[in-house]
User: Which sequence fits this backbone?
């Protein structure tokens, strides 16, 4: 009969620091203990588990073994819930408390986060929300490494280990400058713009999505400018450098420099982008994250 492993939360936290920083010395400095305390804790953990978790490389720091990688993945979720259990015990019958880290695709953030943070803050004033913005691959990595518990994303090129729930659909539209020959129309076809230069929102996943949208309409875009900035796309369109495709629409049609753009719904049968709430598959959300997810569902589905 196998004996039960005997280790402490402190030892697990020491291992986590060593694994994340790749150094016993750096881990000791972060936790403010001696290097020998970290080394002893990791050695004890490996002995109790009967498996090597870290490879000690002379003058090159630490590297995770395959077993260490798997253990680290499970450990982050375990420690998060250990913290939540302690908080729950301290605040039985009280409101949620603590910190919550949420990821958000950078072009969605200005449209959704202000309202979400305000409404969630009114319901859970003792939870401090930290937002991590980035592109699709970057936000997925933040979920994977435990930097974020939840993320608001488009369902574009999400990896199999990312689980998502659709909250809203965002159809594409064409953007043209004020005074454009199509600007007075109620809607347009992409074929009407095929011979004109296009401004591309050049973010990972986004660029492929917009190209696929154009292809479904039988259009091969002639890209004249690329930018990773949503507002730069709008500014270049307003200045007459071309048209563009976008999904989120601001409440007004002015650009930063005071110029005007015109948004045209499309008559083409084109795929809308799902706006999703994402998390790492198999990870159980903390109470704080569950409450934020509920706020997202209510706000976006409304």
Assistant:
């Amino acid at each position: 009969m196998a004996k039960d492993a005997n280790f402490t939360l402190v030892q697990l936290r020491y291992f986590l620091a060593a694994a994340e920083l790749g150094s016993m010395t750096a881990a000791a400095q972060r936790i403010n203990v001696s290097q020998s305390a970290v080394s002893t804790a990791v050695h004890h953990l490996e002995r109790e588990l009967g498996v090597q978790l870290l490879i000690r490389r002379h003058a090159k720091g630490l590297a995770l073994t395959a077993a260490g990688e798997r253990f680290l993945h499970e450990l982050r979720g375990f420690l998060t819930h250990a913290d939540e259990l302690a908080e729950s015990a301290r605040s039985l019958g009280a409101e949620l408390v603590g910190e919550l880290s949420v990821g958000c695709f950078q072009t969605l953030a200005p449209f959704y986060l202000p309202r979400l943070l305000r409404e969630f803050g009114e319901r859970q004033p003792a939870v401090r929300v930290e937002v991590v913005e980035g592109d699709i691959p970057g936000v997925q990595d933040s979920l994977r490494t435990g930097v974020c518990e939840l993320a608001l994303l488009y369902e574009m090129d999400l990896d199999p280990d990312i689980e998502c729930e659709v909250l809203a659909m965002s159809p594409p539209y064409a953007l043209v400058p004020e005074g454009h020959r199509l600007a007075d129309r109620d809607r347009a076809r992409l074929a009407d713009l095929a011979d004109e230069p296009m401004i591309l929102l050049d973010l990972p996943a986004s660029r492929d999505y917009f190209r696929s949208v154009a292809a479904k309409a039988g259009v091969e875009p002639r890209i004249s400018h690329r930018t990773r900035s949503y507002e730069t796309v709008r500014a270049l369109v307003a200045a007459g450098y071309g048209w563009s495709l976008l999904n989120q629409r601001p409440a007004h049609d002015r650009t930063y420099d005071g110029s005007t753009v015109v948004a045209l719904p499309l008559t083409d049968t084109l795929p809308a982008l799902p706006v999703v709430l994402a998390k790492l598959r198999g990870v159980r959300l903390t109470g704080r994250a569950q409450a934020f997810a509920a706020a997202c569902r209510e706000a976006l589905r409304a």
